[in-house]
Amino acid sequence: MIYSSCFNLKFLPRSLIYGWERNMAARIDISSPLPIVEGGYTEANSGRMITEANLELDVGIVVHKSSSDEKTEFLPVLRSGSCAEIGPKQYMEDEHICIDDLLGHLETTAKFPSPGAFYGVFDGHGGTDAAAIKSAFLKADYAFADASSLDISSGTTALTALIFGRTLVVANAGDCRAVLGRQGRAIEMSKDQKPNCTSERIRIEKLGGVIYDGYLNGQLSVARALGDWHMKGPKGSACPLSAEPELQEMDLSEEDEFLIMGCDGLWDVMSSQCAVTMARKELLLHNDPERCSRELVREALKRKTCDNLTVIVVCFSIDPPLK
C-alpha cells in the first residue's frame, strides 16, 4: 500500500531512504554516531564529514542501538493502516506517509534486504506548509529556510520508521512517538523531545535558550523540529531549536507484533501501554491495521484531545497476535 495525504510523493525524504539503503547494502555498522556539531551543520562541514566517513547518511544523529537477544530467521510480513482527523482544531497541520513495499516503489535492482518499508508522521505548526514538504531531517531544515513561499514560522516535527529485512530504524525530531507492541508490552522506540526533558533542557540552556512554562523561548512546545526559522540564526549557527533526529535501531523477532506511530494528539491523552493494549485487542477482533488506527483516533477524540490526530499501525505478520 502507498498512501500520502495532501502531497505528491516527490516530497518523500529520498535522501534518508537512499542513505540507509547504502548502509544496509554495505553492511556498515552504524552503532557509533557521526560527530555532532552543536547547533547544526553547514552544507560545507556536512559534506566533509560524509566524505570522510564514506557514508551517504544524514548527519547530526544520536544513535541508540538495540537488538533482540534471540537469534532467529524471522522476517516480517508488512502491512499498515492509517487514520488522520482534524480533531478540535481549525486547521489540519499533520501529514503522514505509508509505503509497505519500499523496494518496489524505488524500483531498485540492488540486493537490499527484503521486505522494505517506510512510514512517517509529520506534525506541523505555524501553518500547513511545513508538514507538506519532506526531505531528510537536516536537509529539509535547510529547504524550509530557502523556500521563499513558506511562512518563516512554519515548522514540523518528524517521526519516521524504516524497515529493511528484520531491521527497524526509528528516527525522531519532536514529540511524535513510535511504540512497539511486543506480546502485549509497550516498548517505546522514540523519546518525546520536550523542552522540559532534562537532556534537552541542558542542551537548550547551553546554547543560550530559555524555557518558559514548558515552551522553548516561550514560543514552541518541542525542543526539536524542522523549519521554524524565525527561531533560528543563520544556517549552521548554534541554535537551541535543533533539527537533528535521535535514532534507534533494533532487529525484529517473532515476539514483535506491531508498531504504533502517532502525533502528540494521541499521546497527550493515552499512555503507550494503553495504546498497545487497545491496538492488540482490536487486532485480535478483526486483524485490520487500518480499523485499528481508526479506533485509536476515535478513542483519543473521546478523551478530549486538543490537537490534530494522526495514527499509523504497522503489523509485522499476516496473522493476528497470539492470544
Automatic annotation (TrEMBL):
It comes from Hibiscus syriacus (Rose of Sharon). GO terms for molecular function: metal ion binding; protein serine/threonine phosphatase activity. Keywords: Hydrolase, Magnesium, Manganese, Metal-binding, Protein phosphatase. This is protein-serine/threonine phosphatase. Residues 79-316 form the PPM-type phosphatase domain. Its cofactor is Mg(2+); Mn(2+). The keyword Metal-binding applies. Gene3D superfamilies: PPM-type phosphatase domain. Signal peptide: none annotated. InterPro entries: PP2C, PP2C_BS, PPM-type-like_dom_sf, PPM-type_phosphatase-like_dom. It holds the Pfam family PP2C. Belongs to the PP2C family. Its EC number is 3.1.3.16.
